[in-house]
Amino acid sequence: MARLPRVHLAGCPEHIIQRGNNRQVCFASEEDFAAYAHWLKEYSDAFGVHVHAWVFMTNHVHLLCTASDARGISLMMQSLGRQYVRYFNRQYRRSGTLWEGRFKSCLVQEEHYILAVYRYIEMNPVRAGMVASPADYHWSSYASNALGKATALCQPHPSYLALAASDTERQQAYRDLFRSELSEAMLADIRSTIKSGMALGNERFKQEVEALTGRRQHKGKAGRPRKDRI
C-alpha cells in the first residue's frame, strides 16, 4: 500500500523525529553530533526552515521547526539525511541505510502546544535517565533557549519571544516552565501525534488543518472490517 504524503503547511510549526534503523546508534562520537548540527544549519538555511528546538540522542533526533515553504522541511530532511549517511558510512567503514525509513512529523498548534513541544524535546535526555537536568546535556537547544548561549542554529518562535520583553526575563520565564512536568495527557498527545502524523492541537486547529490540506486529522474508530472488503 502506498504511503500517504506527510502534511506540511508553510508557516506552521512541525515536530519532527528521525530514528536510527532498528534503533541503532546514529551518533558514536562528539564529532558525529557536531557534523549533524553543521549540516542541519546548512540545509535549514538553504530551504528556509527555522529550527526552534532540537535534541540529538544517540539513536534519534527531535526537531521543532517552521518552514517558509510547504516543501522546506521535506527537502531539508532529505538532504540532511543523505549527507549525514554518507559521512557516517565513510567514518565507520560501513555501507547501507542508517535511518529507519522516512522521518515522522506532525503539525503543532502555536497556542497552548508549541512550548510544550519545546519542553518535551529538551527533556528527552532527562526522561531517558542520561542526565538529571536538561542543562547537563550538551546536544540540545536548552542552553540557548533557557540559558542564553549564543548559537546560529536555534531561531526563536514568536511564542517563545512572547514569554517576556527582555532576553534575561525570557530565559528565566522559560526555565520556570521546567519547574513542573508535562501532564501525562500532554505526553500522550505528543507521542501519539508524532507517531500517527496527525496534528497536535485542539479541535478547532485540527479542523483547520483538515480544511486546508484535505487530510483527516482524527483517528478512525476501531472495528471489524466489512465483509465486502478484502
Overall description:
It is a single chain. The protein has helices at residues 30-46, 72-91, 114-122, 124-127, 142-147, 158-161, 167-177, 184-196, 203-213, and strands spanning 14-19, 49-56, 60-67, 104-107. It has 230 residues and is of the alpha+beta class. The chain has a single domain, classed as Transposase IS200-like (Alpha-Beta Plaits, 2-Layer Sandwich). A four-stranded antiparallel β-sheet has the order 2-3-1-4, with helices on both faces. A hairpin with a 3-residue loop joins strand 2 and strand 3 (60-67). The chain starts with 13 loop residues before the first strand and ends in a 17-residue tail after the last helix. The model is unreliable at 222-230 (pLDDT under 50). Residues 211-230 are annotated as: Disordered. Residues 215-230 have a biased composition (Basic residues). Residues 9-124 form the Transposase IS200-like domain.
